[in-house]
Input
Amino acid sequence: MNDMKVLGWSIAILLVAAPSAVAQGRPTPWYERGPFLHFAASAELATNGYTLGAAFSDDKRIRLASGAALALAAGFAKELYDLSANGDFSWSDIGWGVVGTATGLLISWLVDRLLFGPSHRTLADRLGLSVASPPQGLRAGTRDSYGAGR
Output
């Protein structure tokens, strides 16, 4: 996925989700504690999910998906818990969670892009845990420099 598409989708999600964050029956000022906590928790979870995805994959789509999945799943799980506990499912909280998720993913992607460039090795590669193809001269059926076959 090209970098401009990632940036475009992140901004589009922010623009679409922001109005729904306050679309519930009563207006919720942005400075209240509840919306801020939903926004901040979702942004943090999205950042952590992106970082976890970056440890195992070079593909930015996987990184973005792991961050979004972690943050959105936690937000929906919390609202389902609220529904079962006291019957108060809040679409406003979901909206703020989506805005926080998009913000966290955008920040993570920008930091990744600025610090590490377009591509970098994963943690699994650096620790030697990934499965790599054998060097060019040591493929099956070839001989190494000593004449030994593999």
Q: What stands out?
A: Helices lie at 3-21, 33-56, 60-86, 91-116, 123-126. The chain is about 65% helix and 0% strand. The radius of gyration is 22 Å.
